[in-house]
Amino acid sequence: MNEVRCELCPRECRIPQGGAGDCRIRVNLGGKLRATTYGRPSAVHIDPMEKKPLYHFYPASRVFSIATAGCNLHCRNCQNWQLSQRGGEEMEQLYHLMPDQVVATAKARDCQSVAYTYSDPIVFYEYVYDTAVLAHEQGLKNVFVTAGYINAAPLRKLCKVLDATNTDLKAFNDEFYRRNCGASLKPVLDALVIFSEEGVWQEVTYLVIPTLNDDMGGIHRMAKWIRSELGEETPLHFSRFQPMYKLRNLPPTTTATLEHARAEAMDAGLQYVYIGNVFGNKATSTYCPRDDSLLIERIGNRIVENRLTEDGRCPVCKLPIPGVW
Amino acid sequence: MEKLLNHSRLRDLRFVVLVLLNLFLISGFLVSGAGGESGPPGGWRRIDLQALQTRIEAGELVDTEASWYHREKTEKAGQGRE
Ligand SMILES: [Zn+2]
Predict the structure, then answer these.
(1) Which residues have C-beta within 8 Å of that of residue A26, sequence separation ≥ 6?
(2) Which of B52, B59, B72 has the CB atom closest to A5's CB atom?
(3) Which of A27, A172, B25, B76 is an S-S bond match for A222, by CB 3.0 to 4.6 Å?
(4) Burial readout A11-46 (b: 16 or more C-beta within 10 A, e: otherwise)
């Protein structure tokens, strides 16, 4: 007795009294499931929107970004593993920042949005939801940076208070999810479709890891899936892998591989395909899909020039560019 | 003579056990972590409950009730992982 079943993510952990879910921070105390990091983030930063990365959502705006410990994925290449692969009781740093304090601080620091990010905000769902409701009341936008491993019902409820998401699609291959993240692909694809159906502005990130998910056939199939299920206007970011955590044995992704992946995705019909984590690459900028005019010039996470018209059109051919400008 | 024979048999036996133990440990290592994560476990984790409770009592963590769960009425949870 006193066991609980968490229904937040597809793992649906059955947790005995005194145990935690796979995510480490949802704990059964006294026969009730507790969100132990509610209002206790371990990472708090102000970032530019481009760092999420979101390229078609309030460019160059400031985002108040928070994360608590814990994650429901266990990626061998995790860049935030010291945050994501720990429970709250293992953290040195625990800030006291209740939802109203997050919103007040974000506004005081001149941020236009709050981002739930770094680890996977799915696991601190209640904190995200309550903060997002207050943020909306105060005129702030909500940005959800996630791997999308969540059940449909909680996601649909959360979508009502989200404005934008960047979702990691880690591979277009269930075997990769199983071996590299301890998860599975199908729920992630379902989540991408739900974000789209619920009208949340969505961009997708694909981290290209040499030998593990850099097969161009798979990348082409993924891009075709995005085009048919989410739309050709969905921005896709190919990001460069750097050796870390349990994947220190692999080299960084070459620029040639990233450019090849981008060409495959554009060939599959996607209109806005970017390359990230490569300084000075021209594919960090936004171009008009009709006449190839440079629309937003970026160097790293910095915007050099934004040539979009006030209502978000190409200044040359007046094509409306999808996004929230 | 017989005593000497018994002694050497015992030594052989020890050697065989040692070899088998090594093989067992090596195969255990290969099957576990080295091959990476092995799919979506639906399990739970053992945590340092004492540390958690101490930090909740100190106000550094909280016991806010979560959403999206229900109490189980049947069967038992499997073995927890660290
Ligand atoms: Zn144009």
Answers:
(1) A6, A8, A13, A15, A20, A33, A34, A35, A36, A70, A123, B66, B69
(2) B72
(3) A172
(4) bbbbbbbbbbbbbbbbbbbeebbbbbbbbbbbbeee
Give, in words, the CATH class of A37-273.
alpha beta
* Distance, CA of B46 to CA of B31 (rounded, Å): 22
Give span(s): CATH 3.20.20.70, chain A: 37-273
Six-digit token pair at A202?
A: 């969505």
> Residue A303 CB: number of other CB atoms within 10 A?
18
Residue of chain B nearest A68, judged by CA positions: B61
Model pTM?
Answer: 0.89
Distance (Å) from the alpha carbon of A41 to chain B's nearest alpha carbon: 10
Peptide bond into A53 cis (omega under 30): yes
Average pLDDT, 10 consecutive residues per value, chain A (325 residues): 93 95 96 97 97 97 98 94 94 97 98 97 98 98 98 98 98 95 96 98 98 97 98 98 94 96 98 93 97 96 96 98 97
Residue among A54, A62, A113, A60 nearest A235 (CA): A54
Q: Please tell me which of the candidates A16, A76, A153 has its beta carbon nearest to residue B36.
A: A76
B44-67 pLDDT, tens digit each: 999 999 999 999 999 999 999 999
The amino acid at residue B28 is: G
| Token pair recorded at residue A256 | 């040639």
d(C-alpha A24, C-alpha B82), whole Å: 10
Number of H helices, E strands in chain B: 2, 2
Asked if the Cβ–Cβ distance from A39 to B64 is below 8 Å, we say yes
Residue A233 CA, ligand 1 centroid: distance in Å: 14
Q: What are B's interface residues with A at a Cβ cutoff of 8 A? A: 35-49, 51-52, 54-56, 59-72, 76-78, 80
Element (H, E) at A29: strand A26-29
